From TrEMBL:
SUPFAM superfamilies: Homeodomain-like (SSF46689). It comes from the Bacteria. This is Mor transcription activator domain-containing protein. Signal peptide: none annotated. It comes from Rossellomorea vietnamensis.
């Protein structure tokens, strides 16, 4: 979470109005729902996991066993099963 000084961000009139309700305390102003992004979409983490999962599914389809995939990808066998049996 980024912190900004209100006097640099808000107009004076709005700052004075907020000070009627809150003085000397921190407040959180949430983002608009329309500006939310899915986890990992900015960092590329989501894409890397999707690519890893595609490789796991392909290896399973080509006969690689669940326990071997778990060992190769440092995941539990249960996680590998979730990946290969999900749609």
């Amino acid at each position: 979470m980024k912190v900004a000084k209100t006097q640099h961000v808000l107009p004076d009139d709005l700052l004075k109005e907020i000070q009627k309700y809150v003085q000397g305390e921190s407040i959180y102003i949430p983002k608009l729902k329309s500006s939310y992004q899915k986890w990992g979409s900015r960092s590329g983490g989501r894409k890397r996991i999707e690519e890893r999962n595609a490789r796991i599914r392909e290896a399973f389809k080509n006969g690689c066993r669940v326990d071997r995939l778990a060992e190769d990808y440092f995941l539990s066998p249960e996680t590998i099963k979730k990946i290969v049996y999900s749609k």
